[in-house]
Amino acid sequence: MLEGLMQGLVTAFTFTNILMVIGGVLIGTFIGMLPGLGPMSIIAIMIPVAISIGEPSTALILLAGVYYGAIFGGSTSSILINAPGVASTVATSFDGYPLARQGKAGKALTVAAVSSFAGGTIGAILLMIFAPMLATVALLFHSTEYFAMMVVGLSAIAAFAGTGQVSKAIMMTILGLMLGTVGEAALFPAPRFTFGVQDLQSGLSFITLAMAMFALPEAIYLVLDPNRSKTGSGGTSEIKDLRITKAESKEIAPVIGRQSLQGFFIGVLPGAGATIASFLGYAVERNIAKKEDQDKFGKGSLKGLAAPESANNAACTGSFVPLLTLGIPGSGTTAILLGALIALNVSPGPRLMVDNPNIFWSVIISMYLGNLVLLILNLPLIPYIAKILAVPRTYLIPFILFFTMMGAYIGQNNATELLLLVGLGVAATILRFANFPLAPALIGFILGRMLEDNFARSMQLYDGFSFVWERPMTTGLLFLAIVLVILPSWRARLARIRAKGIADGD
Amino acid sequence: MALERWIALVFVAICLIYGYTAFFAMDGALAPFMRRNPVWPSTFPKILAVMGLVTGLVILFGGKAAASRPGEGEIDYRRLLSYNFGQALLLLTLMVIYALALRPVGFVLSSVIFLSLGSYILGERKLFVVVPVSLVAVFGIWYLVQEVLGIFLRPWPWFI
What we know:
The structure holds 2 protein chains of 2 kinds. Chain A has helices at 2-12, 15-33, 39-53, 56-81, 90-138, 143-159, 166-180, 206-224, 246-268, 273-288, 291-296, 302-318, 320-326, 332-343, 352-355, 357-385, 393-412, 415-433, 439-462, 467-470, 472-505, and strands at residues 183-184, 191-192. Chain A is mostly helical. In chain A, strands 1-2 form a two-stranded antiparallel ribbon. In chain A, a hairpin with a 6-residue loop joins strand 1 and strand 2 (191-192). Chain B is mostly helical. In chain B, 62% of the residues lie in helices and 0% in strands. Chains A and B meet through helix 7, helix 8, helix 17, helix 18 and helix 19 of A and helix 1, helix 2, helix 3, helix 4 and helix 5 of B.
């Protein structure tokens, strides 16, 4: 481990890479503050840039920096103008915005930055411990287990989608898998489902799909509802008094510790992610707080601010565990990162640590660096960063649309891609109207090809479906997948029957 | 019928077309030696089609339609026209026109027009600000993409 760590240090501490971290964090923070642009959209927009860098570890370092910056940027707009750009910073606004209105915006931002830093750093340490362990286990996996593991990952994402959403999430996953089969399959050099369209021959581009799923619907929402991008009015223009007192830091330190741990482990679960971690962190801290502290939650409690902030950053780091060790993304963001890695000819999985240790470790090192840069760069910049919120939407929206299209166009140099983008984007917006989760579709799309490859390989090895019951680990994993999918709907049914019974007994 | 059921209906239709292709249309083109293979290009799509069909039908007919009121910050599609629906439609049309014009008109001109018109549609009337801003931005991006990243963008119209 130490050797790898040193190697990572050497890779990460080159001049270009440090520049990339700084640049990525800055870009991420600035764009992340714009209401409506979450880390997923920003990373999707940055991917063509990262891919054209060519060097995988540098590209990944840039994207990781953008990711952290975007999360912090989202917290900033939650605190200053109560406009969380991302779901995972909604909990931040519960106590952050009241603090800002009390004129303590500076203090709130400092607490947010420090908690994010602590959460991210503790998460990175845990990642360093757990990822190699998991990778060792995963090296025992055959293609049949990979296939089963991916099925588990996909069903877990559906299962954690929330009540009433499970069947929708499954539908979106299958839709993503179907979209993934368009074009040539890896094992069979014959085009499928292209319906004679030449441009579909090589399959849909994942960047186009990512833009169409996240960036474009968000932009359309901004157009439809001007309130989403309202700027400034309620915020404080003056930011002073950044300092935290000793008593306050004593108060929030245990909160940060607990929530970093909890957040990390929630983040490891596929589909759970930073949003659940932040809400759960907030709820847990409110429940275990002393009575007089409990009353302060929601009215500007520093604990209530520190909890979701450290939890969501730790969870973001945690979500790298399944990505780096199994090659399975647990969230939309890591799915996009996985796509970028594949485009750079790196296949994440247990072999990554053995074959490309410098990539693996430099990503981890860049997490420390990114968090550190975030802290020292952003604290003094906070008052200036807040100025970006003043960009009027009449400029903002055309530029978002323009960057979305550039992202899809630059990689392919194909104008058909833009028409596909608009078409898929409109479809995604309609799906979003009806509350269909979009991330499962993208995860399904990206995993689809690997899923089918492993499936085909298992079928060939066992000459049919017998691998499903001949390999105990595969059987176990597939069984787990079925349980994951059925359990939520079964429990919902049980609850409904119970509710009915009470009504009948009335 | 709620929007989610309409979507499920469309999805079922997609699955039927997809399934038809997988079950009946695709295997004809299979090379003879491939037929001895236990897994065909259509095997995985067949499984997907069946699973998709089941899921789609479950949403279409199963349970009561959850009266999903849109949460705060979400958009209520039932009142779609009370939002800036026209602006959104115009911008999407503009995007399509941009996609079609990008090649013949060239990157710089079409992008500047796209950005300026986009702002105009959204209600910005200060063209003497919008156009220079777009010009600077487009040139900056063109320079970055073509000169720094080395991706050719075809900057000028076809006749230059």
